[in-house]
Amino acid sequence: MSVGTAALVARHLRSRASTSIVLALVVGIAVALSALLPRALVQVSDAELQHELTSKPPGATDLYGVGQFGGPDVGGSTELALETFDDTDAVLAGVPDGLPAPLGPALGRVSWLAVLPDDTAKLRPSRVAVQAEIRLAADLAWQDRVTFTAGSAPVAWSGSPDEPLQIAISADYAEQAGFEVGDVLEYTDAPLEVSGIYTVDDPASAYWVHAPELLSATISRLPSSPTIVRGAAYVDPGSVAFLPLSLSRAELRAWYPLIPERLSYADIPALDEELRRIESLGLYLPTGEGLLFQTRLPGYLETVTGTIRTVTAIAALSASAPLGALLAVLALGARAVRERRRSTLALAAARGAGQLQLRATLLLEGALIGIPATAIALVAVGIAVPTPVDASTWVLPALIGVVPPLLFGLGSLREARQRTDLGGLGSRARWITELAVTGLAALALYLLARRGLVVTGSGVVDPLLAATPLLVALVVCIVVLRVYPLPLLALLRAARAGRGAVGLVGSASSLRASTAAFGSVLATVMGVSAAIFSLVLASSVTDGLRAAAVAETGADIRVDARVLDDLDTVSAIPGVAGVAALDTVQGVEIAFGLDRPHVTVVFADLRLLHGVRPDIPVVAPGSILVSADIAERSQGETTLDGHPVTTAGTLPTTALPGLTSSWVLADIADETAIIGEVPTYGSLLISVEPGADLPTVAGDVREVVTDAQNATDRGRVRVTDTSSFFTDAAARPSIAGLTVALLGAAGLALLLCVLAVALGALAAAGARARSAGVLGLLGMSPAQLRGVLVWELAPVTVTALIAGSGLGIALAVGMSALVDLGSIVGGGASVAVSIPWPLVGLVVVVFAGVVGVTGALTAAAARRLDASAAVKIGAE
Amino acid sequence: MSNATTGTEPHIECVDLVRIFSAEGVEVQALQGLTLRVERGELTAIVGASGSGKSTLLSILSGLDVPTAGRARVAGHDLLTMRAAERTAYRRRTVGFVWQQTARNLVPYFTVEENVAMALAVARFPRAGRRDRIGEVLEPLGIADLAGRLPIELSGGQQQRAAVAVALANEPQVLFADEPTGELDALNSEVVLEALRDVNERLGVTVLIVTHDASVSSHVRRTVQIRDGRTSTEVLRSTRTNEYGRSVQHAEEFAVLDRVGRLQLPQDYLTALGLKDRVRLGLETDRVEIRPTRPEGEESE
């Protein structure tokens, strides 16, 4: 056997290594989790961005530019006209290449068309009594998107006044305007001949969002005016050579689809800046005209950023508790290992081992526990989740990794002292430490209050946010350890006067035996507060989602379509309890005396609506209900589109789905009188019978409503139900990620709490066994010994549970006061904190159970030591 | 008396040693001006009841504790002014320790050989010479064949001899033993005390044994009694040849006079003569007389 120093140290480190191995495992898991958290946040952020961008309706995320086509005088040359189109196409197609990353590379192939100003097109004799307005449009690739149902594509016009200019129109426009193939229409520049009628191949394509008049007609019915049918028609691009005047005034629409897969959350600041730059600067075309860009992307990006900041803040706060519990476990574990080394260290010190030698050995042991576990965990996480992350995210795992060497190497060398019977850590040192921790907590709270909870950086866990609850929890622990003896002292005095030995011994032991390790109390406080914080937040988010689902849907099921007239069929669907139809008319003038704002008027059969939405009252004909935001303006004589009405009540602004401000609800009976039109329902609100399966009923409703629509309008049918909305919302990456983080943090904190309490109890097991041995020798029965144990554990545990519950609720309430949970939930409504008291009670009971079971196990361990052995150990 | 016999510097010297412990506002004076002088190569036992301050004295002498006041020197090291580096060197090379409990003497998961090696390693003894050195210390103590055993595999006496071996590893000038026979039966106690005497005689190491066991004194030449944190009496044993030419053990008890002339009278003297509160002192040409104070009438007779 080698007697070299290295071999001896190795032998020393190998002996009694079980606690060290457990500690290394804890470090490894902690490092892995702390390294995973930022990666998970990056993944959630990226997924949320993708979800936000892909969940938008077609075309909503496009970079859309509009300007005048302008262009050179092509002088009646078809070739020159086509060349101009080709040049414009090349210029527009090259735009993304000229834009910096991340915007440029994220843009797809441009789509564009030129739309000439609208003008009247008359068919003589007319087949239907409408006035047709038409816009001519030219697009190089339009034929790829349509299928002709009649006739064929127009050919390029020769420019001859005798020859009509051929056009192609959509089937809907043809039907509404009463046009057929071969019709020749009167038009300003030249007669137009309908050469073909088409249907579009993909009505859901973004193209038709940007060129809706080429998909279908819009019908404008105004009181005492002829009905106007507006639409557009494709011409051959070569034909525009002979329409110079119109072409120079033509509108150029160009749009670039955004490809979300090419973007990550980290790109948002640069992307936002680029978008704002291009929006304000626009783009110059070779024709000398400019293209002005519009995009809704910055709004969407802001939504994502807001959500992710909130999620990150909550994640950081919820990570704090397991972090605290982890530190408690590490400290307790390090103490346990050092305790095991105590005799050897004392011996080595007595034999002349210097501070450096002792510390080096301890440091080496700490490093062997911390460093390999950290390295393995980091490599494993790096391989398992190869998400590129910011360098700063390595700091926390690295810090956790160096905690064991620091705890081992830099702690006091009191283990090396031979005598422990003469004085110890003074009460002054304890006061100083406690004051320092309280001061740090106050400083952290002050900094947080000054800065706010949400940081502006990208998805990185904020150290201040993670540390603050930990510091507050430490202060709570200090208070717990300072406060719980006070009632105990009173109990002790009472017990002295009484005859029961258990109460006397138990309260004295709880007060003086210091079996309540700070680590155990910290772990209990952190564990309970984490679980309750998570529960309260998860419950608030769930309630918020439900509220958002109801606000978005307006009833159990909401249906939107172009025209909904067959209400009876919908009412007959099994499971449907009530149906109310809404007709929404926008831009109606309401007059409150001289104040004349424009509002959206919703007409409905209020009796039916009350059946579906009991919160909306029935009012008499001639009366209206107004949204809360305009209610304060409602004074004096009120007229709606010139008709006198009475304001009968106010409804919350979010009471009706899809309307965010300034609306009026009136009875359907008044619509014809007020607007002068027959009601055309565009929305249905449906309530379902209790017990009916909401998604199934919604599916049936969708089928019935879709069948009743014509081919063009089927794509516009939208059916939403609260349960699907809730399920979809809950599945959003941010919400799903947050739920996992909250539940994970609560579970982890509970696990670490168990570990910390067990470690603390095991550390105290020797002392407990000795006192139990002495008490047993004095004649205490096992039941009385159990009673003493309950006395020892119960006061501090109950205090810690109460303090932990209070801290958890306070953190959740504080969090929701400072962070807009509505940004995660969506729906525009603010989210109120809801405390699920039964679950809170359950958590407290679970934690009490955990401590109780651990205590019982300790008692079992104590019983295994017989009294004589215990007393002998006590003599050492 | 030995502490007044020579003019050269003693190997262990304590003068008016005071050690006060303060804990939670309560002061305990463990040593109250203790004076002790041990010459190089002496084998001395310090005997005292529990709480008399003997363990505190040993803690100070071994450099594990610092006195509150007084003077303490061991082998030329001033224990009051010693810095950390000197203290470490002192523990490594100047002194060795043997304690009562095995747990404080031997690392339980090291074999006897490794325990000696650890002491050598701590003192940075060259690696090449370690095995020879281990043999040198184990052999004379009769435990060379136990070198590969763990402490738990040894008897109490073997454990204490192993502890002596560990203490001697770095050739200390002074060996301190704190209740070395406290957990041993009479036979094993004999063996361990003989081993300590052998070390003293063979290697010339100054040995100081602290014990509450009065029977230890029969194995040493000099026994110092500590009472209430002070040395009270000393017993010196010597072997003399009587008129028949036989060697006989001779024991003589002395009271210890401190620097300012204080001494403690043995308890049995006080009881026998009813000495209490005030006594009469009388200076004769060759002695000092102490007489009890009697009532006035009696005294005049």
Can you describe what's shown?
The complex is a heterodimer of chains A (876) and B (301). Chain A has 27 helices and 22 strands. The C terminus of chain A is likely disordered. With 301 residues, chain B is α/β, with parallel strands linked by helices. Chain B has two domains: 254 residues, P-loop containing nucleotide triphosphate hydrolases (Rossmann fold), CATH 3.40.50; 33 residues, no CATH class. Chain B is 28% helix and 30% strand. Classes of the chains: A alpha+beta (876), B alpha/beta (301). At the A-B interface, helix 1 and helix 9 of A face strand 1, helix 2, helix 3, helix 4 and helix 5 of B.
CATH architecture classification name of the largest domain in chain B = 3-Layer(aba) Sandwich
The residue fraction in helices of chain B comes out at 25-40%
* Gyration radius of chain A, in Å: 38 Å
Mind describing the biggest β-sheet of chain B? 7 strands, mixed
Number of DSSP helices of chain A? 27
The overall pLDDT of chain B, averaged over residues, is: 83
